[in-house]
Specification:
Blueprint lengths: L13 E3 L2 E3 L9 E7 L3 E8 L4 E7 L2 E7 L6 E5 L4 E4 L3 E7 L3 E7 L5 H7 E3 L6
Antiparallel strand pairs: 1-2, 3-10, 4-9, 4-11, 5-8, 5-10, 6-7, 6-9
């Protein structure tokens, strides 16, 4: 199921005496990656022709910004631990990290470098 909101509402975690299991993505995917980002860094500044991805924040936080390709309306918000963002195709997106951040990326396509690069279009950073 593709979410309709940028911050994805997660289903309740399963919990028992051993701990919890939080299901993140319940659909076919082509790649799962663990991303460590250093404080003060920026990532993304691109859009995908056909790919989509979920970004689950394990620790740290990020300012996320996006807009549909060809439009000027920017959506911006902060995302932190335990929250997950979904970015669809044809959506320019940018992230800034004020602190060290660890996130899990789940994408439709493989994240092997050549596959990933062939589907994306780089854009200038959206200042502001």
């Amino acid at each position: 199921m593709t979410p309709t909101a940028l911050i994805v509402p997660l289903t309740p975690a399963f919990a028992d005496a051993r701990g919890t299991i939080q299901n993140l993505v319940e659909q076919d995917c082509g790649g799962v990656g663990l991303i460590h980002t250093k404080a003060g860094s920026r990532r993304s500044s691109h859009w995908h022709r056909t790919d989509w991805h979920y970004l689950y924040i394990v620790s740290g936080r990020a300012r996320y910004r996006e807009r549909k390709v060809g439009t000027e309306t920017v959506v911006e918000f902060w995302v932190g631990p335990g929250q997950m963002v979904w970015t669809g195709p044809n959506t320019e997106h940018w992230m800034e990290f004020p602190e060290d951040t660890v996130m899990i990326s789940v994408s439709k396509l493989s994240r092997q470098h050549d596959v990933h690069e062939s589907d994306l279009v780089r854009v200038d950073w959206l200042e502001g």
